[in-house]
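Review this fold:
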Amino acid sequence: APDIPVIDQAYSKLSNSITVEWRAVPGATNYMLTAEDGDSFVETMVKNSPGTVTGLKPATLYRITVRSVNSGGKSQPSPFRKVKTALAAPILSVHSLSCDSIAVSWKAVHMAAGFSVSLMRSDGLGRMLKQNTTNTSLVFTNLDPGTLYTIKAYAWNANGMPGDDFTYNQRTSPNAPVDVKLAFNSGALRAVVSWMPTEGALTYSVTVSSGLLKLRCNTSSASCMVPSLQCSSEYYVSVTAHNDAGSSEPSEAVSLKTIPCAPVNISIEEDEPGHLLVSWSTVSLGHYYVVFVKSDDGLEVHCNTSSTQCHFQSDCGYTYFISVFAYNKAGQSPLGDVFNYTTAPCCPSDFRAVFTSSDTVRVTWAAVRGADLYETRAAGGSGVMLCRDTATACTLSALQCSTPYNITVYSFSEARGSNTSCAPQYVATAPCSPEIKNISKEGLSVISVQWQPNNEEATYVVTARGEAGLWHCTSTTNSCTLMDLPCGSAFSVSAIARSPAGQSLPSYSIPLETAPCCPNDMILTQVTQSVTNISWSVGRGAQTYVTTLESPKGQAKCHTLQTYCLLGCITCGTNYTVSLRAISETGLTSSCTYQGYSSSACCPSGVKLYRLSNNGIRVFWRASDETMSYNADLHGSKGNFSCTPSSGLSHCDITKIPCGDVYTVLVAPVTDKGPKLTFCPKKIYSVTCSGSSVGMVIYRGKSNAKHI
């Protein structure tokens, strides 16, 4: 182990530590410092001298020893030294009592005999103030307002040894702001307050007071805007500066007088025609008044006075807009109520009455000044009709037709009533609408229309309107005739009356339908011996058709929606008369006649084939009419053959007909016109061969074949 070290000196500069100095010991690598106060001890390992023991109690007596240390161990403790730690620093409580003073206080410090407190501007300017005291508080005065000061304090013991010091920065409160100025905005009723910046001030508060009313404004700049001021009021304005140390005294109050309020109790009177008197009540803080009178044509006049009334000239039919302002040095009062005064209106001019129908007249006129409402009065007929409107036009409806009226337009204003001296204008209404009493047919395309005449000196026009076009007739009596109306057409018939006063409304329309048209074309085709097909073109206006074929032997009839039909029970070889009735949807009928029709001759019966020599065939039949000529046709796979006998005969021969074939035989009457008749009965015969030239004829009908 190393040798025991020797302490040269031990001392305390801080209240929580003691510093020790000793001579170095050869071979020692570390040193252990020990501080004991009887109740506890603190050890600290250091490399070399000097060394400091920390974590000690202030103003406490300690025994200090040192041991040298190396790898071999520790030496014995050195002879001890007694050392007392320094006094603790006083903990300061500091505040600014005013803009030029700072108060400092602290709690008592153990073992302290006295205290030293020093104060100096933190920016280093000026001199330092220092006071020694045995008390625990003191006050520094005559300081600079709004200035930051650094304060340092420490305690000393009975031997005069100083303890730890304590430093604190404190600012003095600011001085009251000066050079307060006001800028008043009369239009917005607000003021901008400004002042010279105060040293050390962080914020400012502006107080604007008037009686019990107080307005405040806070800011960090050197100006502030105070809104919502009242008119006709006097305010006192002061400014206070603030910082973290406190507030200054308020600045000297500055007086602010606002603009006067708008005048009230305004009255307008027309003391005599053409003269207006405007009066009002006195306004607080108002020095003089200006009255503006503007007419609705844009012309404006004004009156400047220190009294409370003004006189103006006026004209009839005008609306005047009147406003009154009060003035003082602060400016013009706000705009108060704008009053209007309307003088009695004049009579409407440029009067016009135009009939839009037989019972409606539209009246127009030029606008007049001051008129809020117009009344149109129509006197005539059975009474008086009124129309009130704000527009310069009025429509009088439901007037009696064919009646004279006196129409007058009066102008009104809510303030002054009406002008009743306006002259009337005479007008007459258009004729009354005629009433159609009867429509009768005078002929195939001639219609007579009758109505009830209800006008004097009127001309009546009757119109038939339909898809086919327009037809007119005119009369001054109670009837007229429509000519050349087309068949199969629907019309709407109405009538109007005309006179110098105008044209009436049309009468109620009466429907009119002409009889349907007869079809132009008809075709008859015989389908079988007893059935004929009839077809025809469309008849305009027709819905159904009845077609009739009639002869002394009987009648065939067909009723159909189509343009064709089949007629049965037709007698062959008979002359028929042809007729057709076209019927409309409402039952109107047109009877149509056409050229006569002759049915075809009757077909022969008992048709038979006989074999002749030389490969010939004789066709035999029983004729229905001995005067009729017939034709026989044979159709087979080996050829077609025909023969026609002389008139009056009932057979004919066909030579060189091939045997061994089946033939279809048709015998039909021969007509003078048209194609051959194909509807006569057909029979099938088989012509067989026997040897080289002899065969037999076999009938092949619906039954089995047989030899003839």
